[in-house]
Amino acid sequence: MKEKFLLYIDILGFSQLINHEERTRELYQIIDILNVHKHNVFQTIVFSDTILVYNRKAPIDDDAAKYIVTYATEFAEDLHYRLIGKDLYFRAMLTFGAFDHYHLKNTECFFGQALVRAYKAEKHAPITGLLIDKKCHPLLRFFESEQFDENWHFVYLERTFKNLVDIACGSLPIHREIYCQGESVPYLLWALKYTSNIYYQMRNHPYPLVRTKFLTTWDFYHRRYGFILDALVATNFSPEPLCPEYDWGPEVTRFNEELIAANN
After folding, report:
1. Are the beta carbons of 214 and 201 closer than 8 angstroms?
2. Whole-number pLDDT of residue 82
3. Element containing residue 86 per DSSP (H, E)
4. What are the pLDDT digits (tens) for 185-224?
5. What gap in Å lies between CA 20 and CA 245, rounded to an integer?
6. Could you tell me which of 200, 192, 185, 178 has the C-alpha nearest to residue 245?
7. Residue 263 pLDDT > 80, yes or no?
8. pLDDT above 80 for 128
9. Within 13 A of 53's CA, how many CA atoms are on the CB side?
10. Burial readout 201-210 (b: 16 or more C-beta within 10 A, e: otherwise)
């Protein structure tokens, strides 16, 4: 059996979601238009609340392996952004190991140790977002990460805050001239929406075990971007404290319109 890089994605709360047919169909429509389907290096399997993505061919060298890990991570990031504002979340595991996928006359078959490893780890990880196997972690590029446990690292799929920290130079507020020069925070309001949702869920979700998942996610983002998140919490996630001199009105209006359009 050949070894593959395997991205295992589990949609959280699916058992409650299927009680709402329209929202379930909307989720599958989102999955159907993910960027991964445009990339012929990868194969995708979708069943129930699970998405599997793996590389069709083995990488020929380290650069090719980094390429695969980078795109697999960006596929998780793509799903992350498409679910913002929809009250839908996922937990994903990126690992490497034996995996086989083939078709018989009437049956689609897929199995392997990589799938078992991802499945078992995902079920016991009290967090949302993406975790990457320590075997794959040295190949990770462009994304910040932090050790989650002895076998997995948490990947910061929300990269907006790193760009904002670079512009802020470690303190707030940001001067208007500096913020307006920054072309690397175009999705800032989406990032604020995401973190406000995480903050709300960790405090208000009716099930304690689910609250724990969001609390752990918030804790990772807060330990890295604490001064930004503290300022946002203090003003109910308004962008105003980031740059008080900036006219946020038009941008907020445009964001709200995009959010409404994305949910219709």
Report:
1. yes
2. 95
3. none
4. 778 999 999 999 999 999 999 999 999 999 999 999 999 9
5. 43
6. 178
7. no
8. yes
9. 27
10. bbeebeeeeb
Please, which residues have CB within 8 angstroms of residue 7's CB and are 6 or more apart in sequence? 51, 52, 53, 54, 72, 75, 76, 92, 93, 94
First to last CA, the chain: 44
For residue 2, count other CB atoms closer than 10 A to its CB. Answer: 11
pLDDT tens string 62-88: 999 999 999 999 999 999 999 999 999
* Cis peptide upstream of residue 186 (ω within 30 degrees of 0): no
Let me know: does 45 contact 92? Beta carbons within 8 Å: no
Give the integer Cα–Cα distance in Å for 73 and 142.
Answer: 10
Q: Tell whether pTM > 0.90.
A: yes
Tell me the residue type at 43. Answer: Q
Q: Can you tell me which residue has the tokens 């869920």?
A: 201
pLDDT of residue 166: 85
Measured distance CA(164)–CA(179) in Å, rounded: 9
| Residue reference for tokens 């920290």 | 165
**HEC secondary structure over 165-217:** HHHHCCCCCCCHHHHHHCCCCCCHHHHHHHHHHHHHHHHHCCCHHHHHHHHHH
Residue 184 has pLDDT above 70, yes or no: no
Confidence of residue 15 (pLDDT cuts 50, 70, 90): confident
